[in-house]
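INSTRUCTION: Work out how this chain folds

Fields: amino acid sequence; protein backbone structure tokens

Chain under study, with its fold:
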Amino acid sequence: MTDIRHKRRAGNITAEDFSDLKVGEMVLDVNAGKIYFVQSITTQPSDTKGNQIWQFNASTSISLAFSISGMTFNRYGDHLIGDGEWRSGSELIFSSITYANGPPTSAYVSCSAWDENLDLADPWTGATGGDDQDTEYPDDVGDTLDFILNASKSSESDTFTRTATFLNQHCTGTSTAESLDSAGINGLSSKVVTSGKNGTFTFSPSANEYIYIAYRKSLGTSTFTVGGVGVILEGPETVEAHANSAGFTEPYFVYRSTNHSLATTTIVVS
């Protein structure tokens, strides 16, 4: 490009505006949002050559605004709720941070459970927590912790959030015990961190083993079907102070098959 000429007119640009335009030069019509440029062409017949004025209508734009494009956090998503310290700061790793129209001039990660923010250093693409980022479990099932990247470039700023959600377990399995206490619930073979109780579960009891299903009492009672036919499981019995493997305590319902030594059985819980 040898030249860009700015034309500001009350009316439309006319051919006269291009009378002295050379190949490779452009005219920008600021008011209409159009670019005109002269291009050398070859027309038919092949020995006839000339120039044409080409027009480009700008229908899209490219933003020059600063923003955060993404961030990887190794502890976001669903987690088993517990009591006390969830993770030390050194276990919290923020990486692969990218920006649009970056880099920033400053950046830090914040969390309401921390003593201090985690400052990032140039090139502001990652950081690992320290003692000030030791993180306690939240108080209740369903609570969340937001880890917020705050980045600025001159007068522009943006945030990007990764969230950890804390849930309890749905527990299923088999046991020869005729009833389960908290330790017995923790001894069941399948434990899934989830917000609900419904699902489809398959059991293969050995000799003298009962089928057990246990979950948070606050989720309410359940119905059970096998092959589309309703079945009855005994219970629910309530374990008032079930402590999961991370130390969080709340009441649990426990259901048990009436008979032991059953064949492999798939039960739908709803």
Residues 182-186 form the longest helix (5 residues). The two ends are 69 Å apart (CA to CA). Confidence is low (pLDDT under 50) at residues 1-10.
